Amino acid sequence: MSDNLAADTTDHADVEAVGDLARRVTTNVEEVIVGHHDVVEHLVTALLARGHVLLEDVPGVGKTMLARAVARSVDCSFKRVQFTPDLLPTDVTGVNVFNEKTREFDFHPGPIFANVVLGDEINRAPPKTQSALLEAMEEQQVTVDGTTRHVPDPFIVIATQNSVERDRTYELPAAELDRFMKKLHLGYPDEDDESEVLARVVGQHPIDTLSPVAGVEEIVAARQSVANVTVESAIREYVTRLARYTREHATLGVSPRGSISLLRAGQARAALNDRDYVIPDDVQREAVVTFAHRIRPAPDGDLTGRELVEEALERTTV
C-alpha cells in the first residue's frame, strides 16, 4: 500500500469516528430535546467546528435546556452565567482579590473558564458586560488587569436571548454577533412533539439522568479531524462569492470571519456525513444559520438577512 493511500485511509477512519461521535451526542441530546433534530445537529457541528452558538426565540421553547443537554452529553466543565442588567464584566471573566496572608493578589476565575459556557439571556446585560466575552470567544483567552490567561480547550459559548421584551434588553453589537458561528431558532413544537415533551417530563426530568457520551479528549481529537477535512479551491471561491453577494446587497454584509465560519461549518457537516472533503451541499446546508445574523439589510430593502442569504444561494453559481 502506498503512503498516500495509507494516509487517505487513516483520514477517512478519523472522519468516520467524528461522524459517529456527532451522532452519539445528537442522539443523547434528543433524549431531552424533542422535534428539533436539525437544530441539535447544527449545534453539534458548531461544537466540532470550533464555533459559538446564539439561540434566539421566545421564552419557554427549550433554549437553555438544549444548551444544558449538549453540555451534559460531553464529560467536561460547564458553567452558567445568568445575564442581568447589574452584571459586571468581572462577574464573567474573574477578578483579582488581595490576600492579606500572602500580601499578594489572587486571581479568582470567573465562569468563562469552562469548556462549555452558557450565557443565559445574554441581551439582558449592558454592552460593557457583553463585551467581556469578546476576547475569549475570538482568541480563547481572557485578560484581567494586564495578565492574560487561556480558557480551557475545547471552549464553546452557547448564548440564549429571547426575541420579545425588546424594550427591556440590549441589542448585541455587530462585533459580538460576528463572533457567533451560528444563530439558531427553535420555534414552537408541533402537537405530537409537544405531547411527547409533556410525557417525558412527568415525574423526573430527563436532563437529570442524562449521562455523558463523549469525553474532552474525544472532542479535541474530533475538532482536529474536522480541521483537516479537505476544502478545494472551488469551494473556497463559492463561499467568497456568497459573501460578496451579501456585501453588495446590504448595508452590512458578511465579514471574512463569517466566510471562515461557513467553511469550518461545512467541514463539520462533511465529517458528520462521513466525508473527508467538503461539497457545495455542505456549504448550502450551513449558509443561512452562519451568514444571516451577520447581515444588516439596506434601509430601503425589503429582504431580511435570512432572505438575502437564500437569494444569494439561488443566484450564485456553484
TrEMBL record:
Q: Where are the transmembrane segments?
A: none
| Domain of life of the native organism | Archaea
Annotated keywords: ATP-binding, Nucleotide-binding
According to the entry, every stretch annotated as the AAA+ ATPase domain falls at: 49-190
Which GO molecular function annotations are given, in alphabetical order? Answer: ATP binding
Name the record gives this protein: AAA family ATPase
Q: What organism does the UniProt record list as the source?
A: Halomarina rubra
Lineage, broadest ranks: Archaea, Methanobacteriati, Methanobacteriota, Stenosarchaea group, Halobacteria
